[in-house]
Specification:
Layout lengths: L1 H24 L2 H33 L1 H24 L2
Helix pairs in contact: 1-2, 2-3
């Protein structure tokens, strides 16, 4: 996952530069593309961090993760069953 985080950092930096160039040049499209790339890079970094955290949690306490996944599955099933009754 370290590669994904590095890619996110590079994408964020490139987006920041592109946004600055668009701002200096007065090109709104380039500026918006840069801002979008910057946000995409930040999102990629957050996703990599969340994946690392989930992997570490599963490795250190698998029973808690299993219980949590079971609870979420039960709740989703209950919601789905209750929404089917309305039809």
């Amino acid at each position: 996952m370290e590669t994904t985080k590095i890619e996110g950092t590079l994408r964020e930096t490139a987006g920041n530069v592109k946004e600055a160039v668009g701002s200096i040049a007065g090109d709104t499209r380039t500026q918006l593309e840069g801002a979008a790339n910057e946000l995409r890079g930040k999102a990629q970094q957050l996703c990599a961090d969340a994946s690392d955290l989930a992997r570490d949690t599963m490795a250190s306490n698998p029973l808690a993760v299993l219980a949590g996944a079971s609870a979420v599955g039960f709740l989703l099933g209950a919601l789905w069953a209750s929404s089917r009754r309305d039809y």
